Amino acid sequence: MEYIEKIYSYYLTKKQVEKLVLLKKIFVKKSISIKEFCEESNKTTYQLRNLLYEIEENINIFSKQEKPIFTIGKKNIYLTEEMKQEYYLDLFVKLRKTYFIESPYYQLLIYMFKKRRARVVEISNNLVFSTSYCYKLLRYLRKMLTIQNMPITLDKNKDTIELNGEEMCIRMYFYLIEILANNVYIEVNIRSAIDLLAKEYEPLRTTKIKHDLMFSIIENSVTQGYFINSDCSSSIEIFGHLSELYDETPVRKALPIRTEKDSRTELIYYYFWAMLFIPETVTEDEKIILGEKFIRIENNQIIDFSNSIIDKLSEKYELDDNTIHKLVYEIVVNTWGYQNLYLDKFMSKENLSLYLDSGKEVEAVVENSLKKSSLNIKNKGLFIQKMGQIIGSYVPLQKNEVLSIGISTLNHPEYISVIKNILLKIYNGTVLHFTEHLEQADILVSDGVLIHSENQEFAFLGNIHNTNDWEHLNTLIQTSIVNRCK
To answer: Would the pTM count as exceeding 0.90?
Structure first.
């Protein structure tokens, strides 16, 4: 079971998860083998057909289809009509939202996140569940939180149920489960006393929804008297530079917090949380400005860790000032997140295979710097991998990572320069290198047959006006780049 499907299984019924898995396979592959799917899922053909009919009925509740979405053949299941990918994604996330809303596990979990404590009779009345069913659901949710190794508990005190645990972990869980369930389809207005992104991000509705959801969770918590209880002394100087760049006054006024200490802690968490989970609100110029300020901070664990990595990378790679400052920003913000936002609990644990050739070298630098620091990082292996991926993406390509292209045309030699220039407009010159020594090329391009070695790829470009030939060449180049970056 894939990571995201495993997450679905915590909150949805087995049948709902099976429907989403089936729908995803068909949307991605356009057609699937009935025999292969039945063998993989341990289903009969009859059960598979029933799942498809039920999916059609579920989708028709929110989207009236003129034609059936699926065509069931003798051996395969097809999409009846070829539509844009966005159309199918829209159907998938709306169906997923429908399943979550119908799920009693999700309903009770969100209710407790909002209320924090409630009598069982209140839960029963508000969610229209019997008292015995409420207790059954609570037992399941307790087990699920334990399996996920979350520092969150559902405790019973007489006839009252209380949601307890690490405050930031509770908020993070609340936010991520809502994003998982709703995607961007939050159709009701979220209670939020502040509209920080209204003007700047009005065209990008998704960004505004993410912010409104995040801020409403913070508001809901502090209004009920639940504050972040954490020592942020090592973050104060870092936060000082954030407050210089961003006006904290609207946020401070919007949160009903009495003490300066609680107010400052909440602001620190708010800004770091937003930078990590709504990164599109931070421009590249702002990253450079903040990185340049951060790098000058002295006697700070996170900054010292960041500077140690930068020093080691600078010995091997030629990093310009802007790249260094962006790297500092990324290292500081992500490291802070791993220390304070329980990212080890919420980040996917899949094997990270997409690396630049320098990935392992960067990981080694991160690991050595981490050993010398006094940072408290849980799940260090995951942290090193994730940081290696982020940092490695900024490191300049080395010679052995550049893709070499050789072009030899038989019928249209005048097009060689045209092909080169078109490719250079699509791909950066630091990624592609053109060589006249065809035996040294990684990819050979020609309008005829070329004798070449087995480790060389070949792309036929019979006519520069043929879009199919260009698509094939483009796919081959992209695949080769990805493979070389692993």
So the answer is: no
